[in-house]
Amino acid sequence: MLWFTEYYKGEGMELQGTGLSMKVKSSKYLKTPYQELLLLETEDWGKVLVLDGAVQTTERDEFIYHEMISHPALFTFPRQVEKVLVIGGGDGGTVREVLKHQPKEVVMVEIDREVVEICKKEFPSISNGLGDERVKLTFGDGREFVKDKEAEFDLIIVDCSDPIGPSVVLYQEDFYRDCFKALKEDGIFVTQSESPFAQNRVHRQVVRELEKVFPIVRPYLVFIPTYPSGMWSFTIGSKKLDPLGVAPSALGKLYRELIEREGALKYYNPEVHYGAFAIPNFVYREE
Ligand code: AG3
To answer: Which residues constitute the catalytic centre (predicted)?
Structure first.
């Protein structure tokens, strides 16, 4: 039997002698113009997408990442969300969750066309939203895409890989400034912000840079077993709306409406919404 190991490495990784292994039944490797892509069929995690040696998506735990990158921000809006921008997100999981909030339009800008093509074929339960008529799929550089946009989006979601290769520019203050400008006056930005345990400095840097740009910044935590250390984070930057300011009664109502219409969620619920923003002391300790 073959095993795949993600050896933890790269910019900002603080665990350099650690990795995660999975038993593999079969594998397919290809090189895209942007990265190395590995598609694994595994014993425990179903199909797994690996980019440049880093696990991105597994069929077994993808719901955690995709529900939690989307719903905390979306449930913060007291009104219907009209236009959402997803940067990255090639597997389609984020778009699938966003569509549950019935936006008028979702624009997704992914740099690597081959990732989308593979995911459409190999992960239909994750990528199924990409064919929806409200979804406009563009291939290109998300960093460039937001540069000339003004007051256009209710919500911008950055669903990117680690800060190595094509994603580096998505961790920088000038990018966050352009996103601020591209958002409507009550717009919200959310990005995946790495592991507060395994990539503590990178995580803190994202929060710090966002604090230079957005008046409200709220990091929050999730558990993702196949990512480094299992402890993962997302960070919201918001112009006006505070995810912690949503009244429990209003959130409860919106949540019940959504699950009646779309079916049960597997991770997110109103208790998780508030609880995810509780951060243990070590994350922001003095160095
Ligand atoms: N994007 C974040 C993956 C980061 C994982 N890092 C790692 N394994 N070293 C996931 C994309 C899912 N749509």
So the answer is: 159 (proton acceptor)
Is there a catalytic annotation at residue 132? no
What is the phi/psi pair of residue 83, to 5°?
Answer: -130, 125
The pLDDT score that the predictor gives to residue 1 is 83
* Cα–Cα distance, 22 to 188 (Å, whole number): 36
User: Domain extents for the chain?
Assistant: 2-58, 62-284
Read off the tokens for 215.
Answer: 């008046």
Instruction: Identify the CATH homologous superfamily for domain 2-58.
Output: Spermidine synthase, tetramerisation domain (2.30.140.10)
Strands 183-192 and 231-238: antiparallel
Fold for 62-284, please state it.
Answer: Rossmann fold (3.40.50)
Whether the predicted pLDDT of 287 surpasses 70: no
Q: Please calculate the CA angle 56-1-8 and round it to the nearest 5 degrees.
A: 35
Q: Which of 8, 162, 234 to mutate to test the pocket of ligand 1 (most atoms within 8 A of CB)?
A: 162
